[in-house]
Amino acid sequence: MATDDPTARSIGIAPEAGDPPAPLDLRWIDPHQHTQSLTWNDRERFDLSGCRATVMIAAGYYWAPYRPVAARDVRFLWDDALRRARAFDHRHHYAQRVAVGVHTWANVEDADELLAVMPDYLADERVVAVGETGLEASHHTEAWPLAEQREVVREQFRLAATADLPVLVHTPGSSKGGLNPRDAHAYEEGDRNFTDPLFGDGSAGTKREAVEEDLTLAAEAGLPDKRVVIDHADGSVVDRVLGETDCWLSFSVGASWLRGIDAQDVAVAVEEYGPDRVMVDSDLIGAMRTDPFVIPRTAVDLLRLGLSRDEVEQVVYENPKAVFDLDV
Ligand SMILES: [Zn+2]
Asked: Residue 228: what pLDDT?
């Protein structure tokens, strides 16, 4: 205890050495969330905590009425997202932007119909990315053959290259495992009705294989690395993406109880490769237990883990601002 402590009796807390943290003045952008499934209260929390922009994934296929999903179901979801984006944008203090894509997590029939009209959607001023899309190993209800997925994903990469937009590349799920029964019930869509995996071994290998394939498809489509965001990152793909490509890497930190990814994983990547191509996103979705403050909370955790203010600001604000060319 410091000798000049004026309290009459010690309560055993010694003052720590060093300066106390400076006040927070956080700015943040969330480049991947299913905003249309959240509530006004959630979006107000974004307003209250320094949010400058979020990117809403238009194809929340979970709410498509039928499986397999028809092209018109997905197009309805695109239209719904764009309509909501206008309303959110005019009522909240952050910019609501949209990503449009054919997600691969459920078989979509006649996806060509969507690809044919996608350029018109990509020209909309609120659309800042293609996605999420990318090869998936297992599907809800009905498998989508790999050859067909490759066509649909490659074509979306090509459309993005033509429109000069980035792609949010979905990669197959990863979990550090060991979900307890309480957590397993915190996801309404749940892990029910998934088909057997088409490739990979169901763990980190599946994600690595998918990333390899997606990188190949991007190259075939002429999509430059700087327009590729490998999303839902975990430690199994950090070296490949940050060490051997010029692509961006985004960690989905919004459901660490499910994915097992949090600020610690981000800090490890930044320590190894620097903050230049690292981002975080929430992947917030109203069908599971979520934390609308997860991006600012992750920023604070990164500071506690020793990243500098500049590094944290780059990860949660400057990088997504640059990738999605956001005027915020
Ligand atoms: Zn995803």
From this structure: 98
pTM above 0.85, yes or no: yes
Phi, psi dihedral angles at 11 (to 5 degrees): -105, 15
Centroid of ligand 1 to alpha carbon of 230 (angstroms):
10
Ligand 1 mean position, distance from CA 15 (Å): 45
Residues 74-105 have pLDDT tens digits of 999 999 999 999 999 989 999 999 999 999 98
Please tell me the distance between residue 238's alpha carbon and the centre of ligand 1 in angstroms: 17
Query: What tens digit of pLDDT does each residue of 123-138 get?
Result: 999 999 999 999 999 8
Q: Smallest Cα–Cα separation from 41: which of 277, 292, 252? A: 292
CA–CA gap between residue 105 and residue 135 (Å, rounded): 9
Task: Walk me through the domains of the chain, giving residue ranges and CATH numbers.
Answer: 28-210+224-323 (3.20.20.140)
Kindly tell me if the per-residue pLDDT of 177 is higher than 60: no
* CA 170 to ligand 1 centroid distance, Å: 4
Residue 131 CA to ligand 1 centre (angstroms):
9
Burial class (CB in 10 A: 0-12, 13-18, 19+), 51: buried
How many A from CA of 88 to the centre of ligand 1?
22
> How many angstroms is it from 172 CA to the middle of ligand 1?
7
